[in-house]
Design goal:
Shape: flat
Number of helices: 7
Largest sheet: 2 strands, antiparallel
Bound molecules: zinc ion
Order of helices and strands: HEHHEHEEEEHEEHHEE
Strand content: 5-15%
Oligomer: single chain
Structural class: alpha+beta
């Protein structure tokens, strides 16, 4: 078996950025595709002037993922990483990593009242309407409703948490559906993601549909020809 050599990063620095998060970010950006250990991250997280070690570096690291949208891999995502090892594969940020805005408890109460404690997802005029605590007939799990921000491109962090019309209640399955299959910037379905996650049989149906749509014929031997020749 060929053991792939693990590439470890190094602290270049100096990292004089003002915040713990900015210093950790700079360390990762200097070491794209390379493994960083928690020792290295802690080293850089220290205040460059006082040398004080922050206790919350781990929290700042997770904010780089959740708030800034960076991908930072750990042993949970990558078999070749050990515990306490981290890697940022590229400087790309997920555009959907908008601020983690939440409705206030009062707003969320209003949303649930309006929703009748049911999922408000609608598709082709068909509403989901699964209730909190119901058994989801598709996933088999128990339904838990959580808030979904309806229009992320007009986010106003000052008023939105107080405005029930900006939010809706969604069941877990539809939260995933929205995140994975719904492009919140265009408001359109992410067809590519849907096809990718479809079963082979469903992909074949889509494939045949597209062949037909573009005027091709799939023959029994697997060859494809244009219908008009
Ligand atoms: Zn639902």
């Amino acid at each position: 078996m060929v053991e792939e050599k693990k590439l470890y990063g190094q602290i270049r620095g100096p990292y004089n950025q003002k915040t713990v998060k900015k210093r950790i970010e700079a360390l990762f950006l200097d070491n794209l595709g390379k493994i960083l250990t928690s020792e290295q991250i802690k080293q850089v997280a220290k205040d460059p002037y006082t040398g004080k070690q922050p206790e919350n570096w781990h929290q700042r690291l997770s904010e780089l993922r959740t708030d800034d949208g960076y991908t930072i891999l750990t042993w949970r995502n990558r078999g070749d990483l050990r515990v306490e090892e981290y890697m940022m594969p590229s400087a790309d940020k997920r555009p959907t990593a908008a601020k983690r805005l939440r409705p206030t408890a009062q707003t969320w109460k209003l949303v649930l009242e309006r929703a009748g404690n049911r999922c408000e997802w609608e598709e082709d005029g068909q509403a989901c309407r699964l209730g909190e605590g119901d058994t989801d007939p598709v996933s088999g799990g128990r339904v838990r409703l959580t808030p979904d921000h309806k229009a992320p491109h007009s986010v106003n962090p000052d008023t939105d948490p107080l405005d029930a019309t900006q939010w809706r209640a969604l069941c877990g399955r539809h939260q995933v559906m929205k995140r994975n299959y719904w492009d919140s910037t265009t408001g359109k379905l992410n067809i590519h993601a849907i096809i990718q996650s479809a079963t082979r049989a469903e992909k074949l149906i889509a494939f045949r549909f597209l062949l037909d749509y573009f005027g091709y014929i799939l023959h029994a031997d697997g060859s494809i020809t244009r219908a008009d020749v």
